[in-house]
Amino acid sequence: MNLRFTLLAPVSLALALFLQPTHAADSGELNKVCPITGRPAHPKVTASYEGKTYAFADAAARTKWQQARESSLYHKIGGRPAIDAAVESFYKKVLADNRIKHFFEDINMNVQRRKQKEFLSAALGGPIPWTGKDMRKAHANLPGLNDTHFNAVAENLQKTLEELKVKPELIKQVMAIAASTRGDVLNRPPAKK
Ligand code: HEM
Fold first, then answer.
1. For position 130, which CATH number holds?
2. Ligand 1 pocket member 175 (CB < 6 A)
3. Angle at 6 between CA 5 and CA 9, to 5 degrees
4. What is the value of pTM for the model shown?
5. CB 150 within 8 A of CB 94
6. Cβ(62)–Cβ(55) below 8 Å
7. Does residue 12 lie within any of the structural domains?
8. Ligand 1 in contact with 74 (CB < 6 A)?
9. Which residue among 110, 124, 133, 135 is best mutated to probe the pocket of ligand 1, counting the most ligand atoms within 8 A of its Cβ?
């Protein structure tokens, strides 16, 4: 075997692993379906956001998607780095909070943090849809879960966002989205229409 290859191969492998995107959506593969129209995406009509490239059916769909990204709460609070920082800090608070920490005793917190980052990102208008459990199913097996616990979680989220210096009007909007999950998280019967 060529000596240079032998010496360089482990370095290249390490480099490739290091450079590999950590986010599931960064596989580098273009989407086949346009996220706006649901029609086949054209591989040449693309836009990039947070290091990932998305394909669209046509230029109009691309513009609509870009406008949605830029006007999203997700974008306004600082995108992926802001969500990552918020969720890390949020769960530190949750795990130190005697009112609610017992709910997380047997939970794999690495998985929980990853899921919460994905959920929050999608809920705030981030580019990748949430494909996990709906909030009712996710919290169906937490005996005794009630408003006091929900309020404690909301309080920790609000404190986290304040500490990260998110603008008050944006915090208000995030908290309204969090509040909209209360009925499902607490497994209340859905409101009649
Ligand atoms: C703003 C309200 C809340 C949101 C948005 C939220 C979000 C989530 C999400 C995205 C998951 C993962 C779902 C999945 O596995 O696909 C989850 C799981 C979980 N949540 Fe919440 N949650 C909320 C309130 C609460 C409250 C009030 C508690 C308890 C104090 C709680 C405790 C848990 C626990 C223990 C799990 C893990 C369940 C399991 O893996 O079996 N959550 N939550």
1. 1.10.490.10
2. no
3. 70
4. 0.86
5. no
6. no
7. no
8. no
9. 135
Residues 176 and 114 in one domain: yes
What digits encode the pLDDT tens for the residues 136-180? 999 999 999 999 999 999 999 999 999 999 999 999 999 999 999
Residues 30 and 96 in one domain: no
Cβ atoms of residues 125 and 73 within 8 Å: yes
Q: Is the CB of 130 under 6 A from ligand 1?
A: no
DSSP string, 128-188: S---S--HHHHTTT-TT--HHHHHHHHHHHHHHHHHTT--HHHHHHHHHHHHTTHHHHTTP
Residue type, 62: R
Reading the block at residue 84, the tokens are 């990552």
State the residue range of the domain holding 132.
73-185
Q: Which residue type does 69 have?
A: R
Both 97 and 63 in one domain: the answer is no
> How many distinct structural domains can be found in the chain?
2
Binding site membership of 138 for ligand 1 (Cβ less than 6 Å)? yes
Within a domain: residue 1?
Answer: no
